């Protein structure tokens, strides 16, 4: 038992050592000249949610014994009001001759980060080597293996939790229907379907991660769900939802066995549908973050391309894991209801759920494009339904191949034309339109937040977006309640609302500053505190009340 405890302690120590990469940087190293002392300055960037105590035994700088210099008096930058260091801070020391060595001067920065809840991590020491009067800092220091392992675990758990997020709810209906259809098939066939579905999820997330890497390297500010700010993507997704929903109403049929090459690929038929289900899951999962997922993504977007892809890979594994496991556990498959006439009713009910999702996304697109484009947008969606009806009524049922091909080309060309034409009509009025703020909330701006904090007020910031279903769920179940408004008023909280629906560079910077990758983000600044308290992505009135009471009651 004792050996086991020691082993666990070593694993935890390795995991949390160097968790935040390079914390210190050498800002200045000026050697002394004659009677004038030199100067060395080290900057520390303490991550959000953490602090550094002023104890000089655990916070400061030193110089190696081989240096020809020694350190004189040491000065620290100003502490926070509670006697702790947060955010950016610096340590400066005089550099004096008198060292016994003749080698290079290695400046060491040592610190011990503590979390706001009082848990302190292991002490850390970082070595910064200047040559002469030149500052030389590590560029992209190697990532600690334990640190990466922790965030990969966060990504895996976050992907797993995405399965129960409201964003993925419409996709669960499709997966459930497929499992019901397959419940009487051979175990091998069910397992293969599960693997193909998982491949669709993981492959789609790797493609998304590659796009993120390309945009990031091109200097673009990207985050989780960034594609939902693009009207082309939104309109295309709405059309896909319509097409899938209409297939559930038997207006048309997905014939995956058409053609000899496709037949060979899907074997008995249906594998292409399983693959499409995995891709579709990712399409609808990305607008929301889940517990652990926001932390993992916030870390990933500040790292190298390889780390970004690794994080996306583990998110995909977590997202695909539950339904993939079902394919390997026959006992779970046997518990599914037996196929029967009820499946038609269930299938059509799921079609209604997809149509409801399309309607929600249409409202988001209307906000992005502006009210003047509403009529043309609705007419285009009606045209989409008409085109699918034409294909199902005439194209698929045609007796000759040439008629089917001509009909398919006409329908495809019309769909593409609508997808391209509608978003291009975005007008300036769309940018000017803003959602009416709920009473008691103010529009977010850094200046307004700073003004409120400088007055000693308690500040609460909400970053949200109309395409984030988790955000809208929190707004409906938490922020729309009268008792929550009364709670904010009782503690005299200044509330700021940041709308990220269309994208905003300032809000993106603040999201990254909080160590997150997407919305929702909820941050509470108690009076006099330099760093915020971040609330979880999924909120309840009780969580909000407990946070306010614990942070503000005195």
Can you describe what's shown?
This protein has 554 residues and is α+β, with helices and mostly antiparallel strands. Helices cover 50% and strands 14% of the residues. The strands form four sheets. The chain has a five-stranded mixed β-sheet, with helices on both faces. A hairpin with a 7-residue loop joins strand 1 (24-30) and strand 2 (38-45). Helix 2 crosses helix 9 (305-326) and helix 3 (169-182) packs antiparallel against helix 11. The longest helix is centred in the middle third of the chain and has 31 residues, at 187-217. The radius of gyration is 28 Å and the shape is elongated. The chain starts with a helix and ends with a helix. Residues 1-19, 131-142, 255-269 and 425-434 have low confidence and may be disordered.
The poorly predicted ranges are: 1-19, 131-142, 255-269, 425-434
- Principal-axes geometry comes out as elongated
Lateral strand order in the biggest sheet = 10-12-11-13-14
Q: What is the arithmetic mean of pLDDT?
A: 78
**What is the radius of gyration computed over CA atoms, rounded to a whole number of angstroms?**
28 Å
List keywords for this structure.
disordered N terminus, 14 strands, alpha+beta, 554 residues, elongated, single chain
């Amino acid at each position: 038992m004792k050996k086991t405890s020691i082993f666990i302690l070593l694993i935890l120590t390795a995991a949390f050592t160097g968790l935040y990469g390079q914390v210190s940087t050498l800002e200045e190293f000026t050697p002394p000249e004659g009677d004038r002392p030199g100067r060395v300055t080290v900057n520390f960037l303490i991550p959000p949610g953490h602090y550094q105590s002023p104890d000089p035994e655990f916070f400061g700088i030193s110089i190696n014994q081989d240096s020809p210099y020694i350190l004189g008096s040491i000065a620290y930058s100003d502490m926070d009001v509670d006697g702790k260091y947060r955010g950016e801070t610096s340590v400066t020391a005089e550099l004096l001759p008198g060292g016994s060595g003749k080698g290079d001067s290695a400046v060491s920065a040592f610190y011990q980060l503590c979390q706001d809840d009082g848990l302190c991590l292991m002490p850390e020491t970082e070595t910064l080597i200047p040559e002469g009067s030149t500052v030389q800092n590590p560029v992209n220091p190697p990532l600690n293996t334990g640190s990466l392992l922790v965030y990969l675990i966060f990504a895996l758990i976050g992907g797993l939790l995405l399965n129960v997020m409201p964003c993925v709810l419409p996709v669960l209906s499709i997966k459930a229907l497929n499992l019901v259809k397959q419940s009487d098939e051979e175990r091998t066939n069910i397992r293969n379907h599960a693997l193909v579905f998982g491949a669709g999820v993981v492959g789609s997330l790797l493609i998304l991660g590659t796009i993120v890497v390309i945009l990031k390297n091109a200097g673009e500010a990207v985050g989780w769900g960034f594609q939902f700010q693009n009207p082309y993507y939104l309109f295309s997704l709405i059309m896909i939802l319509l097409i899938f929903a209409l297939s559930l109403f038997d207006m048309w049929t997905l014939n995956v066995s058409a053609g000899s090459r496709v037949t060979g690929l899907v074997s008995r038929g249906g594998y292409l549908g399983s693959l499409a289900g995995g891709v579709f899951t990712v399409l609808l999962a990305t607008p929301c973050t889940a517990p652990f997922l926001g932390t993992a993504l916030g870390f990933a977007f500040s790292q190298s391309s390889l780390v970004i892809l690794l994080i996306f890979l583990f998110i995909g594994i977590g997202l695909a894991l539950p339904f993939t496991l079902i394919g390997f556990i026959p006992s779970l498959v046997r518990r599914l209801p037996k196929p029967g006439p009820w499946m038609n009713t269930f299938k059509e009910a799921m079609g209604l759920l997809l149509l409801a999702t399309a309607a929600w996304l249409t409202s988001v697109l209307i906000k992005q494009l502006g009210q003047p484009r509403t009529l043309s947008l609705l007419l285009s969606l009606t045209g989409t339904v008409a085109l699918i009806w034409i294909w199902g009524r005439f194209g698929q049922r045609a007796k000759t191949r040439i008629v089917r091909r001509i009909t398919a080309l006409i329908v495809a060309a019309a769909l593409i034309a609508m997808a391209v034409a509608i978003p291009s009509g975005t007008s300036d009025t769309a940018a000017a339109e803003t959602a009416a703020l709920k009473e008691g909330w103010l529009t977010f701006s850094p200046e307004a937040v700073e003004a409120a904090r400088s007055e000693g007020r308690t500040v609460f910031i909400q970053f949200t977006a109309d395409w984030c279903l988790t955000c809208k769920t929190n707004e409906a179940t938490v922020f729309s309640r009268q008792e929550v408004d009364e709670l904010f008023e009782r503690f005299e909280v200044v509330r700021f609302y940041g709308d990220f629906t269309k994208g905003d560079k300032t809000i993106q910077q603040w999201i990254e500053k909080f160590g997150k990758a997407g919305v929702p983000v909820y941050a509470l600044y108690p009076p006099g505190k330099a760093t915020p308290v971040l609330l979880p992505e999924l909120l309840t009135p009780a969580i909000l009340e407990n946070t306010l009471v614990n942070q503000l009651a005195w």
